[in-house]
Structure formats: structure tokens, C-alpha cells
Amino acid sequence: MTRLVILGKQGAGKGTQCVLLAAHYHIPHISTGDMLRAAVAQGSELGLEAKAIMDAGNLVSDELILGIVRDRLSQPDAQKGFLLDGFPRTETQAEGLLELLSPNSIDLAIDIRVPDDVVTARMLERGRTDDTPEAIARRLELYRAETAPLLDFFEVKCHFADVNGLGSESEVQGRIVAEIDGLK
Ligand code: ADP
Question: Is the pTM for the entire model greater than 0.90?
Fold first, then answer.
């Protein structure tokens, strides 16, 4: 059983690392950003509601996000573990997650640490529709206000580790795998 939360700023490399880790541990990579972008691409009601919020760099409502995560975690493939990417992002989401998992919990929350100037440069290179300078600044501001406090939350509620997010993809993966395997 490997229930993991991958934390870190926008552009810290969570998505890239989760793809590698999902293959390594044979557990699903659950990204709320990817699920929202899929809804936007399908033109569903959820997607229409989320698109303007995402393009401005704001947060979609906790209620909506907790609803999609609840559905996703109830799927058969998530019963043996999962990697959560981009969720939780607020204290309400973090509390909602632990409630959903109860009586189980998260095995490990990992914070991938990268300085602001580096993540900003990475996002500008990526060029997604929400990677404008204004939306990037807004996302980092919300990260500081809403998401950074979750590091303390997870440190208290479960195992927590931080890893240096600078270096090659495989170097960063090696650091994360060492933390996960160190739990066993
Ligand atoms: P990034 O980490 O670069 O912001 P994501 O793919 O994680 O990229 O998220 C893109 C956008 O989707 C966010 O700016 C936000 O609008 C929305 N979003 C994703 N996950 C959440 C979440 N857990 N809570 C609220 N909004 C979310």
C-alpha cells in the first residue's frame, strides 16, 4: 500500500515525477489539474465552469475538487495506493482528503523544493494557456497563502519529507524513491 501526496509549487516538477513514480510503483497518478484540463477539452459542464478560473490562475472550489477526487479514489485501481498531484491545495481539501481515507491515511507526503525564480522560468517555457506572467504570479501567491501551510499540516498528521527539486529528472526521482523506500 503506497498512498502518497506530492507537494510543491507550480513548476516544481510534480507532474513529471509522478509519471515516473507511477510506473515505478504501479499505482495511479491522480492529478486534479489533468482531470480539470480533460473536462475542459471535453467541453463538459465542469470544464466550462473551471476554464476561466484556471486561466486566471485562481483555485477551483474545494467542493468541486473534493467531488472529483472522491469519485477518482473510489475506482478499483486506486485501492492499492495512489500518487496525488496538485491536490490537496487548501486546508479544507487536506481535511476532506483525510476524512475520505479514514480509517486509513496517507503514508507519506513529499514536498519537492524549488526556488520561485526557477519555477517561474520553467512555467514560462512550458507555455500552457494559464502560463501567462499574470496567472503564474497569481498561482504562486495562492500557493504561499493556501498551500504552503499544508506542509505543517502533513508534518503533524503523517510521515513527511522534503526533497531538493533541482537537478536532473532522474536525480530528483532517486531522492524521492529513497524517501518512499525508507518508509518500509
Ligand atoms: P499548476 O500546478 O501549474 O497550477 P495544475 O495542473 O496543478 O498546474 O493546476 C492548474 C489549475 O487547475 C490551477 O491553477 C487551478 O485553477 C486548478 N486546480 C488544480 N488542482 C486544484 C485544486 N486541488 N484545487 C483548486 N484548483 C485546482
Answer: yes
Residue 182, φ and ψ in degrees, nearest 5? -65, -15
Compute the distance between CA of residue 14 and CA of residue 31 in angstroms, rounded to an integer: 9
Query: Are 85 and 14 within 8 A, CB to CB?
Result: yes
Confidence class for position 110, pLDDT limits 50, 70, 90: very high
Ligand 1 nearest-atom number relative to CA 58: 16
As a CATH number, domain 2-181 is 3.40.50.300
Using the mean position of ligand 1's atoms as its centre, give its distance from the Cα of residue 36 in Å: 8
Both ends of the chain: CA-CA distance in Å? 10
Q: Which three cell numbers, joined as nine digits, stand for 103?
A: 480509517
Residue with CA nearest ligand 1 atom 10 = 33
